[in-house]
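User: I'm writing a short report section on ligand binding and want a predicted complex to refer to. Could you take this sequence and flavin-adenine dinucleotide and write out the structure as tokens? A short remark afterwards would be nice.
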Amino acid sequence: MTAAAAPTGAWRTATVRSVEHPSPHAVVLRLEVPDRIDHLPGQHYVIRLTADDGYVAQRSYSIASPTSDPLLECYVERLDGGEVSSFLAEVAEVGDELEVRGPIGGWFVWRGDTPALGVAGGSGAAPLVSMLRHARDLGRPDLLHLAVSAATIDRVPYADELAAAGALIALSRADADSGRAAGRLTAQELAPLVPAEGPCFVCGSARFADGATDLLTGLGVADHRIRVERFGPSG
Ligand SMILES: Cc1cc2nc3c(=O)[nH]c(=O)nc-3n(C[C@H](O)[C@H](O)[C@H](O)COP(=O)(O)OP(=O)(O)OC[C@H]3O[C@@H](n4cnc5c(N)ncnc54)[C@H](O)[C@@H]3O)c2cc1C
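Assistant: Sure. The structure tokens for the complex follow:
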């Protein structure tokens, strides 16, 4: 890793070093990226696939690993009929090479030098996990509060790691093992997690991001503190 070996805009060839399926809906890929630029938690990469006939598809994926990790980790939710996520979840194997570009993003980033709140829906938890791991590296997990929402626990990325870190996990469907009544994340649940100062990161589908932003605004969080990453369809 280096801070200046290649500009962010350059495409590089990453090698898949591990493939894990934490649930039938997702894959965790760990990539070796030669001469990669250190990323900040919250940033993402673009993965570009090129078919034999020249057809190209590229999608953005957040980095789940901390800066200190020698490999780049991505959590990809497999969408039914999704071109790129299905390929990554069902076809990609250890040893495969993927074209990647990054790290990208300058607003949705956390350096670990302020208190912060992260609120995610489903796979939107991926960049928050990078922040959590970074906070642990710094010895400052107390700076970061996290809330993650999903329909069921198997839709929560890194559920065990998040739960162990004290993250609030809000499941909208009933789960016998959860001490919480099924339902969406509420303002009452978020209120004690909002720091007096520092950014509030919101990440997930457009619908989730809008709802979570409304909750934070309703709690009196100023607009300039709310940083949103929408995982909408990308082309
Ligand atoms: C900055 C950024 C970071 C992202 N990080 C991640 C990440 O860490 N993990 C991750 O799994 N995804 C992430 N995404 C979403 C990702 O880029 C793709 O949009 C997603 O994987 C779907 O691509 P696809 O080719 O499989 O589906 P497509 O072939 O593009 O679409 C298939 C169908 O799914 C719908 N669709 C497309 N994207 C989504 C979506 N995100 N949610 C719901 N429906 C969708 C389409 O409208 C279409 O109906 C991120 C997006 C952005 C913009």
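A remark for your report: Helices lie at 83-90, 125-138, 159-164, 187-190, 206-218. Confidence is low (pLDDT under 50) at residues 1-6.
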